[in-house]
């Protein structure tokens, strides 16, 4: 498949780009070469090959959600500027 200058102009118009005649010719040649490389993939025998979604196996690396002891409330609130009823008091951000 060859990419024509008209194809380059159409894509450039959609992308709101402007090119000189020489740039359009260069892009047409380069895009034709790229499509040619991609078309070579049609020649490869892939019968019996499982689809690959990622080149590396992806694993969930999150830890299990287990209950663990935490700090005492008094220690946590020790540096709070204005604790109230065992909680952090923060400034109002919405009316």
TrEMBL record:
Question: Per the UniProt entry, what is one GO biological process?
Answer: translation
> Is Nucleus one of the keywords UniProt gives this record?
no
According to the UniProt entry, its GO molecular function terms are: asparaginyl-tRNA synthase (glutamine-hydrolyzing) activity; ATP binding; glutaminyl-tRNA synthase (glutamine-hydrolyzing) activity; transferase activity
Superkingdom is: Bacteria
Tell me which positions the record assigns to the signal sequence. none
- Keyword entries, A-Z: ATP-binding, Ligase, Nucleotide-binding, Protein biosynthesis, Transferase
**Is rRNA-binding among the key words of this record?**
no
The UniProt catalytic activity note for this protein reads: L-glutamyl-tRNA(Gln) + L-glutamine + ATP + H2O = L-glutaminyl-tRNA(Gln) + L-glutamate + ADP + phosphate + H(+); L-aspartyl-tRNA(Asn) + L-glutamine + ATP + H2O = L-asparaginyl-tRNA(Asn) + L-glutamate + ADP + phosphate + 2 H(+)
Q: What is its EC number?
A: 6.3.5.-
The protein's job, in short, is: Allows the formation of correctly charged Asn-tRNA(Asn) or Gln-tRNA(Gln) through the transamidation of misacylated Asp-tRNA(Asn) or Glu-tRNA(Gln) in organisms which lack either or both of asparaginyl-tRNA or glutaminyl-tRNA synthetases. The reaction takes place in the presence of glutamine and ATP through an activated phospho-Asp-tRNA(Asn) or phospho-Glu-tRNA(Gln).
Q: Which family does it belong to?
A: Belongs to the GatC family.
Q: Which PANTHER family match?
A: GLUTAMYL-TRNA(GLN) AMIDOTRANSFERASE SUBUNIT C, MITOCHONDRIAL
Q: How does it assemble?
A: Heterotrimer of A, B and C subunits.
Spell out the HAMAP family in the cross-references: GatC
What is the recorded name of this protein? Aspartyl/glutamyl-tRNA(Asn/Gln) amidotransferase subunit C
Upper lineage is: Bacteria, Bacillati, Bacillota, Clostridia, Peptostreptococcales
Name of the encoding gene: gatC
